[in-house]
User: Which sequence fits this backbone?
């Protein structure tokens, strides 16, 4: 498991009494994500996992409360100005741009690239196993390769916060493990703060130290992944992952009042 490794370059992410709504769907998030750690965000479909990431990324503005990144209030800051990279399940790439151009966007939105940028892109492509595929278009890649391109872009952007919204959900188990190991390797080297939305318990266990469990648009519990998977999470979590009931709530897992 990778955690607190690297140069400690990650910064904390805090949702301070954030409220938000999509019509009748209400959200109330109050949570802190520790700098430099990988936190898995789990919860039933519709519980608000993507919404939470969108609030951090700035794709949605809070109705009230504050979003703090590295202690700075970014609640009204546009997405492009936030110190954040994000990888989605799909559609991370521009279809008409080559692999190297898609990665280059991580350095310059206008693709005006200096020599140092080009060197960083070449390095990122090598590190993600994409050397030789620089000129291909996204449609000429496999699903796993496309996600590698997205991770190469994360590498060249080098932001202190990485948001992963089920990035490997459509990949098979072995490939998913490879990709998770790649993320863990990047994290070990860069020490960024990672918020990792996943429905897969084994994926959370593989790379996350902490776990945040959402229910009905709010944080229901926070604790270490080890405690959650040792059966100490709330019953709703055990139901969610399909484990049997029973077991007391660990004192190390803070159950949130909703
Ligand atoms: N753009 C939107 N407009 C209106 N409602 C939305 C929008 N995005 C999400 N919702 C609603 O908000 C709720 C939370 O959605 P969200 O995508 O955050 O859940 P999730 O936990 O990520 O779910 P899943 O595991 O299925 O991806 C759902 O009821 C969803 O229908």
Assistant:
């Amino acid at each position: 498991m990778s955690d607190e490794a690297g140069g400690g370059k990650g910064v904390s992410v805090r949702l301070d009494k954030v409220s938000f709504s999509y019509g009748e769907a209400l959200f109330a998030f109050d949570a802190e994500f520790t700098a430099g750690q990988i936190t898995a965000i789990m919860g039933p479909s519709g519980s608000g996992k993507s919404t939470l990431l969108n609030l951090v990324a700035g794709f949605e503005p809070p109705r009230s409360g504050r979003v703090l990144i590295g202690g700075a209030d970014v609640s009204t800051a546009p997405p492009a100005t936030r110190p954040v990279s994000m990888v989605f399940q799909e559609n991370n790439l521009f279809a008409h741009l080559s692999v190297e151009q898609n990665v280059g966007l991580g350095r310059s939105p206008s693709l005006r690239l200096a020599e140092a940028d080009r060197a960083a892109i070449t390095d990122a492509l090598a590190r993600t196993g994409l050397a030789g595929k620089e000129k291909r278009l996204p449609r000429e890649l496999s699903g796993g390769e496309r996600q590698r391109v997205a991770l190469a872009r994360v590498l060249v952007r080098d932001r202190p916060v990485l948001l992963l919204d089920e990035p490997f959900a459509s990949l098979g188990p072995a490939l998913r493990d490879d990709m998770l190991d790649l993320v863990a390797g990047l994290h070990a080297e860069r020490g960024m703060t990672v918020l990792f939305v996943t429905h897969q318990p084994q994926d959370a266990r593989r790379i996350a130290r902490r776990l945040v469990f959402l229910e009905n648009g709010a944080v229901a519990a926070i604790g270490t992944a080890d405690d959650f998977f040792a059966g100490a999470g709330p019953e709703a979590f055990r139901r969610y992952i399909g484990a049997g009931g029973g077991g007391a709530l660990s004192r190390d897992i803070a159950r949130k009042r909703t």
